[in-house]
Design a protein that fits this description.
Structural class: alpha+beta
Strand content: 35-45%
Number of helices: 6
Order of helices and strands: HHEEHEEEEEHEEEEEHH
Oligomer: single chain
Length: 225
């Protein structure tokens, strides 16, 4: 007997997302070749919005029967600096991948229509997850200050030239405003490469941003235009 009324789960992930992730996986260096096999509808069943993270982040829904086939407990980091060309806006946009135990558990893709032949990996980097203790250490530097213009509660750690930084503003396309462990504020740009001191005290910097004395948009545009 045929069951015409069998309920089917509605998938949220789109075909273009599979295509984009596959294209990225294929172009990544050989050490990341394990990702290609995971971008398969038999394993990557779906993805849904991750409400706990910034706009564009999705968490993956995986086939748990196959999970152990790909598990590698030594691989735990985010992959950043993956740039894909948006033909609608004529510029590169950053895609980020979240890996836990060697598994693609999430990804961030901005809106756009992407040219899958124009994937730039020149600024690819691995960013380790910040532990709660490490994150608290950075947040204590804010001294309880908040800002609608900064990402004070959604940063991550970056290591450059053997020094650690914590991001406080995502400027897009792999560029950031960050702080070091002493609370100094830096602008970070990858093309051309630049790490420059903006302010010597993050608390004063937050106050200036909130008061409109420091324009993040003007600062970013002055470096990119």
């Amino acid at each position: 007997m045929l069951n015409f009324f069998k309920k089917r789960r509605i998938k949220h992930i789109q075909d273009w997302e599979y295509d984009l992730l596959r294209s990225i996986a294929v172009k990544l260096p050989k050490k990341y070749s394990f990702l290609s096999a995971q971008i398969d509808p038999e394993f990557l069943l779906d993805s849904v919005l991750n409400e706990l993270l910034n706009e564009g982040w999705k968490r993956t829904i995986l086939n748990q029967n196959l999970y152990n086939n790909y598990k590698n407990t030594s691989i735990n980091y985010q992959m950043k600096g993956i740039l894909v060309y948006d033909v609608l806006e004529s510029k590169n946009k950053e895609v980020q991948l979240d890996l836990y135990e060697g598994i693609l558990i999430g990804y961030r893709v901005p809106t756009g229509k992407f040219d899958l032949e124009r994937i730039d990996l020149a600024n690819l980097k691995e960013v380790g997850f910040v532990t709660p203790t490490e994150e608290l250490k950075y947040r204590e530097l804010f001294n309880g200050k908040n800002s609608d213009y900064l990402d004070l509660n959604d940063g991550f750690e970056i290591q450059l030239d053997n020094k650690n930084y914590y991001t406080i503003k995502d400027l897009g396309d792999g560029n950031y405003i960050s702080i070091d462990s002493s609370g100094k504020v830096y602008g970070m740009f990858h093309d051309p490469y630049l790490v420059e001191l903006i302010h010597g005290d993050v608390q004063e910097f937050i106050d200036q941003v909130n008061a409109g004395k420091f324009s993040i948009d003007d600062y970013r545009d002055s470096k990119l235009n």
